[in-house]
Amino acid sequence: MKTKVLAVVGPTASGKSALAIELAKRLGGEIICCDSMQIYKQMNIGTAKPDESELAQVKHHLFDFADPFVSFSCADYIPLAQATVEDISPHGKLHIFCGGTGLYLDRLFSGADFASTEIDESFRREMEAFALEYGNDALHQRLREIDPKSAEEIHPNNVKRVIRALEIYKTSGRTKSELDAESRESENPYDVIQIGICFEDREALYKRINYRVDKMLEMGLLTETKALLDAGVFDANSTAAQAIGYKELLSYFKGEKPLEDAVEDLKIATRRYAKRQMTWFKSHGDVIWIFADGKSVSELADEAEGIIKERFID
RNA sequence: GGCGCCAUGGCCAAGCGGUAAGGCAAAGGUCUGCAACACCUCUAUCCCCGGUCCGAUUCCGGGUGGCGCCU
Hints:
single chain, alpha/beta, Histone, subunit A, 2 domains, 6-stranded parallel β-sheet, 14 helices, RNA-binding
């Protein structure tokens, strides 16, 4: 009998957190973060992390624990998430994953552990320099020689992923395609239902995004960004430094742009992110979509609860 | 009122006689190892009218609009 796991997915600012909390209250569940940025400490406003009162209503896991200076990846997330599910199980609670990082969920539900491979920063720098000097195709050719299958799947211009594939081979002695093939053999350890929030009217989502960014600014996003900047988070080549919400504001702090323009950049980056998420969730996993246009959280929860009770729990 | 400059896709912008670079945004997409990352695809007949020319976005004249300066 597999552990039952519910995942609330969807684009950023679609209202996942609110829905997850409402469902957790109704169904007796606990929330597990599957968001690559909300895991970090000191990044509260910009990542739209649940606030004090929300955290008080329902038990939340894997939020706000990682050091922004430390690189954190999907491979780090999987064992933590698995352990968290184990940890909750004895309480008989429903596990509710909530977050927008589709890759994390995808990997978690694929059931395979990552073979441990090292991160080799100097190798990355070396390969970047190689690509710069001899061209993307030359670098891609190197991958083609050791792992033609991965080379086939990764576009030559996608230097970052070409390097990662090379790095996997260098640090583990196995090719990425070999490891991928192995992991494909394992099955999902959980009994999963995924509920996705979407909008019939794209503009409605974009309005929510714009509104939320303005709200973040009111809540002190600039102060939070400045603190991270002063602490040197953005100097590090860390995952946290990639978070939307901060890096777009850097040009303002450097005096390169008026605040107004930096904020517009932030809104655009968020909208583009939402679009990518929709593309991802459309083609990964069996998501049951519910439309949120004009609905309140409780109306949305009614709908989601109905689906869950009908198809998932007895 | 006079003089000068400018007028290219939603925005920025190159071209300056042979039928429109590039960037951004938008849209669509890829992604099993940094994923709020990275990458791919993709969008115009050049303000209007007339003239010169085999041929004008490119030259000439006029108009309209904008910017600057002068009285």
